[in-house]
Amino acid sequence: SQQGEEDPQALSIQEGENATMNCSYKTSINNLQWYRQNSGRGLVHLILIRSNEREKHSGRLRVTLDTSKKSSSLLITASRAADTASYFCATYTGGFKTIFGAGTRLFVKA
Amino acid sequence: DAMVIQNPRYQVTQFGKPVTLSCSQTLNHNVMYWYQQKSSQAPKLLFHYYDKDFNNEADTPDNFQSRRPNTSFCFLDIRSPGLGDAAMYLCATSRDRGISNQPQHFGDGTRLSIL
Description:
The complex is a heterodimer of chains A (110) and B (115). With 110 residues, chain A is mainly β. Chain A has no helices and eleven strands. The radius of gyration of chain A is 13 Å and the shape is globular. In chain B, the strands form two sheets. In chain B, strands 2, 4, 5, 6, 9, 10 and 11 form a seven-stranded mixed beta sheet that branches. In chain B, a hairpin with a 6-residue loop joins β4 and β5. The interface between A and B is medium-sized, with 25 and 26 residues.
């Protein structure tokens, strides 16, 4: 079964609005990563948050991690049409395997 | 500059006809991964190489094989493609494994269609 599951599955917003995506996972993790995938392209690493961190920022991205609830959120502020993509959380539990969730499809309307 | 390059971007093959997908990297990373991604689904790890050490996922069908002749190149061979193997195949690299702060670098994938 999947380690990470994103919520919502799809999200449609207007340009300039904030977008929040959530990820829940099942087992203890070493870190959690967020990736973006534009249609027909590969995944691009956005941000990594370690299990001992609670919040991390990178440009317009803000990631939170709540290990007690086994959940993470990705906030994209002041969204742009170019942010339209699928966003995946990925959890690393040790060893060598990163497990991806099914993703949230974000549509930003101009 | 492209760092993980997959060729071809689109591949069409016939049912049962062997096909090879290729991946090259300029990052000099030790680890190379192959993922299968079907529409609106998560990438699913098929196998990975740590240097020359091949690691197969337990649920990867025998129909899928891989070769890594050197650090830069890795190939995915599908011996007898079935209709269910139509998917995007993603190659990724990471500097090392077993270290928790290792993001993966992905190519743009090869979309495989089966006629």
